[in-house]
Specification:
Blueprint (H helix, E strand, L loop, with lengths): L1 H8 L32 H12 L2 H15 L3 H29 L5 H54 L16
Helix pairs in contact: 4-5
Length: 177
């Protein structure tokens, strides 16, 4: 989302530090590379195609997320980028471990395809486990709430039936000399 947000939300501006190429102006966006973003860049085209492929509901959700992203403070954006970077590094380690465990010797395009398929499979597994955990959690939470309701209901009744348990604040007795 950060890449799409960068490509769509920020305006590409020429920078004097970046040399110009013949025929095409060089553009730069923080975090991007020259000529990768902007109306004629491949990153912009990829984002446009991806957005066109979304259902209306997915587009609406994307738009809501984009607005939320744009309203975040720079610190919050950095925290989310850092978290995403940690997630990517972790997934890379998981992919490397899976390749090693499989005993396969993969290079280049085959390694990328393995990584893509592994990532998709992991996402499916994680969603399935999340659903299973939610289903197991529901009755346990319901049981907990019932237990707490009974516990706290009995406590709330106790003070009204026994006035001796209610204490009022009164000044401490002073010792007389």
């Amino acid at each position: 989302m950060a890449i799409a947000g960068t490509a769509l939300a920020q305006t590409a501006t020429p920078t004097p530090a970046t040399p110009k190429k013949e025929g095409k102006p060089v553009t730069w966006i923080p975090g991007g590379h020259p000529n990768e973003v902007g109306p004629n860049g491949p990153a912009y085209e990829n984002v446009r195609k991806a957005l066109e492929a979304l259902t209306p509901e997915q587009r609406k959700k994307f738009q809501e997320n984009m607005i939320r992203w744009m309203n975040l403070s720079p610190e919050e954006k950095k925290a989310l980028r850092d978290r995403e970077e940690v997630r990517k590094k972790f997934m890379e380690q998981e992919i490397n471990a899976a390749i090693q465990e499989s005993g396969l010797q993969l290079e280049g395009e085959r390694r990328e395809m393995f990584a893509k398929r592994y990532t998709e499979g992991r996402r499916t597994i994680e969603e399935q486990l999340r659903k299973e955990m939610n289903e197991k959690r529901k009755p346990l939470v319901h049981e907990l709430v019932s237990h707490l309701r009974n516990e706290f209901a009995s406590e709330s009744v106790a003070p009204t039936t026994t006035p001796t348990t209610i204490q009022t604040a009164s000044p401490a007795p002073t010792a007389k000399p």
